[in-house]
Amino acid sequence: MARQLWFLRHGEAEPHGARPDSARRLTERGEAQAVAAGRALAALGCSVTHIVTSPKIRGRDTARLAAPPLGVEPVEHRALASGFDRDDASELLHALGADERLLVVGHDPDFSRVVHDLTGARVDFKKGGVAGVRMEGTTGGELLVLLRPRELAAIAGA
After folding, report:
1. pTM confidence score
2. DSSP annotation of 1
3. 141-to-13, 28, 89, 126 alpha-carbon distances in Å
């Protein structure tokens, strides 16, 4: 089994301007998206070994709500707050063992750009959506799946 890098974009959040960007919270819908994402990943047999999250409230709460079915405690990673890129992803991957799976929880357009840089795929990353990448080395990979929130909810049985 190869290393895998999974991306979970934070769930729907309060509108811009509701409070400072780093303090914006998930809406009820965003909370449901986060729970469904965790349940769906578990149902798909995606046994992540590590979860790293943006320190922004909406990212942190998405990770916290998605984590229980995966059995992994999220850890904040500052680079996920803004400007997360291919080099940041490679740095995280260097710390993984050969068959480990990492779930990163954060923001777009960063995630769309990193998925493209790693796989060449152009993705429309919905809030609460998930993308899985099987890594070949630490600089390139193959897009395994791109799931929208409604697909995750269906898989989760929500």
Report:
1. 0.96
2. -
3. 30, 34, 12, 21
Domain 4-71+84-156 fold is Rossmann fold (3.40.50)
Q: What string of DSSP letters covers 29-87? A: HHHHHHHHHHHHHHHTT---SEEEE-SSHHHHHHHHHHSGGGT--EEE-GGGGS---HH
**pLDDT digit of tens for each residue in the chain (158 aa)?**
578 999 999 999 999 999 999 999 999 999 999 999 999 999 999 989 999 999 999 999 999 999 999 999 999 999 999 999 999 998 998 888 777 899 999 999 999 999 999 999 999 999 999 999 998 866 678 999 999 999 999 999 96
